[in-house]
Hints:
Layout: H1 28-41, H2 59-72, E1 77-83, E2 86-94, H3 105-109, H4 113-135, E3 139-143, H5 151-157, E4 162-164, E5 167-169, E6 177-184, H6 206-209, H7 218-225, H8 263-268, H9 274-279, H10 288-299, H11 319-333, E7 337-342, E8 364-371, H12 374-379, H13 386-411, E9 416-419, H14 428-434, E10 439-440, E11 447-448, E12 456-463
Antiparallel strand pairs: 1-2, 2-6, 3-6, 4-5, 7-8, 8-12, 9-12, 10-11
Helix pairs in contact: 1-4, 1-13, 4-10, 10-13
Amino acid sequence: MEFIDRSDGVGEYSAPPKSTAEVRDDALLARCAEPFLELASSLRDGDVATELAPLDHSPEALARQMKAAAYFLDTSMVGICATDDGSAIVLLIEHPRLPEKDNPARAWIEGAEHSHVALRGSEVANTLAGYLRWLGYPAKAHFADASDVDLAELAVDSGLAEVRRGQLTNPFVGAAFGLAAVTTGAPLMADRPLDAKRHRIFDRVLGYWFGRGGAVSGLEKLKHSLRPTHLSRYPMERIRRVKEPTTLIREDEVPRVPSRAGFFSRAAHGDLGDKAKREVPRFAGKHPFAEAMEVLMEAQLPLQDGATAPRNAPGLTEPEANARAVKSLCYALGADLFGICEAKPYAWYSHDPEGKEIEPDHCYAIVMLFDQGYATMEGSSGDDWISGAQSYRAYMRGGQIGSVAAAMLRDLGHDARCHSAYKGQVLQIPLVLLAGLGELSRIGELVLNPFVGPRFKSAVITTDLPLQP
């Protein structure tokens, strides 16, 4: 976008643009997203730190930091414009790819692309707003129906879009996107609006297709658009498969352990000494960016489980087709890698944190992996605490995507439950291994993936929906 011609004036905007996208509020994704969006609406604003954080508060530095944070959270494009009370950070989120027409998941998502945008937009906007408040600036998130501002007008003013023939469009993604924003009192350097006189057809030239300036190239996007949606971002289908893991597992000899045996739980109870017990509540929250994510992570825990529809939806009797649909759903919602396996009894905790016995009640596990980000990992100094934000982004997204997908399966009449890093009834390492997503390594209790190595976090959905592992 930095190579697009800009105007020195104000963006041309007179009335809210029309939308040509089909919107189905009765679509499965739209129905199941409602509780999550209601929760997100309650987190739009909050208390502000009493003092400014000790960092560079120049408009240029703050703008760079906010844009980098938004891209780290997987926003498609970011722009900034001035407002009467300060600044607005405008987020553009592309619509997800729809599954193929013969894929059952297509009917679950089609017409509800706006709900996908609202889920991602609310997550990013609430996180950025919370981060700004921790830095000492008032900030409020805006998305979908929970907005106090005209998102389309902000998109025009920030140079992310323009109104052409009554429709809001972007030079690279057309009209297939949605918006969210953060309004703040922070002084941010604004972007200029697009030059309305420039013909956008000239923007999609060789520079776009070959990734000018280090941007994701048009060729890369084209390559991904040609992959079947039930395959992940990485070509795991090329890896040789075997019936049993290389690691020997004598299933009848593996004891079930209580969740109290987990090392975070042990540290919190003082098993690892006073220092570990003291540091547990703040080990990742030392970074205000991670702390901003923790609010949503904890708030969405009650939505990991719920009531199941009394009747099974028709057409979900074939395990292979169901597996393909579930994988396409994970891809559309934002998981990077995914696999399916049997939920073996030894992969379930024996007791929950309160000491209540856990009885395995689901046959299958849907395992999702979330890349923590190569660029951020390589750019870290090792002592900048950014690893906390990397982990929390994956935990936050895994909890949301897993909970939404589980709610959709329950709506279809099949019991399902999300198991996140903060709350779960299963040990995730055995399930990651059994789902064919990696091999046990020699660097600790960890599975190594062929493409992202140890640079991931996982989330699991257990269900009684018939699936092909």
